[in-house]
Amino acid sequence: MARKKTYQRSKQRHRFRISRRQIVLSVELVLSVAFLSYFGYQFYEYTQESDQFSVREVRIEGLRRLDEDTVLLQSGIGRGNNVLYFDAETVRENVESLPLVKKCKVAQIFPDTVVLTIEERIPIATIQVNSRSYEIDDDGVVLREYESDELPLAPYITNVRDLEFVTEGMVVESPALMAALEVWQVYAGTPMAMETTVAEISAESEDTIRMYCDELPFEIRWKQGDVKGQAERLNVLWLSKERKLGCREYLDLRFEDELICK
Predict the structure, then answer these.
(1) Cα separation of 183 and 171, whole Å?
(2) pTM over the 0.90 mark
(3) What residues does 141 pair with on adjacent strands?
(4) Is 192 helix (H, G, I), strand (E, B) or coil?
(5) Same domain, yes or no, for 159 and 247?
(6) 175-197 pLDDT per residue, tens
(7) The domain boundary residue, chosen from 63, 91, 120
(8) In 3D, which of 212, 207, 201 has the Cα closest to residue 254?
(9) Cα-based distances in Å from 244 to 2, 24, 217, 247, 262
(10) Which CATH number fits the domain that encloses residue 243?
């Protein structure tokens, strides 16, 4: 019986020792967190206020048509900005709002430099709306309006259904336009395109795309879907007929393996 009581008292003392150790560890943890928080806050205050981390240089890479001043002004970055804490996402969005900018990457380089890497949009055709001409890229983004004394980039894309006006930076959400752009890009990669000049592509609908070439007396009719297949059939015919297709009004590629020449 005495041994049992001795064991119980020993067990209680052991519990007390464990409990005291836990308290000491908890206090040390709290002090460590407080210490780190204090010095973390002091470091934050220092980096916020120190001129050492102020933006002194903004490098802009990848420009082809835009000028640096336009991009810098649009970015909103000033020399008073802190290189560690300025809003890089806002800068990216600001720059990408320029019609000619497709993508912008923002990099912060310690201690005082910001690098903007720009991917510009490339015009591939001219869209005509209400007798006015605009550059357009492969995403259907309107890049700018041509001046009256400029020579627009061929081909002209005309007769886009239900399109009454466009503005710079606007994305033209038209299936007919996107079909016309696809036709142009696929055709431009064919050997036949090296011997012909596409002057106009009429985008009346996605299933009625009419292409006009300066060297041909007839129009070529396309539709969306399997544009590569249509281009391959056209090119085979062009080569097999030794460039003398015999059509006077149109060549229709829209009926799979059957090419209609009239």
Answers:
(1) 19
(2) no
(3) 171
(4) helix
(5) yes
(6) 999 999 999 999 999 999 999 99
(7) 120
(8) 207
(9) 120, 96, 11, 8, 13
(10) 3.40.50.11690
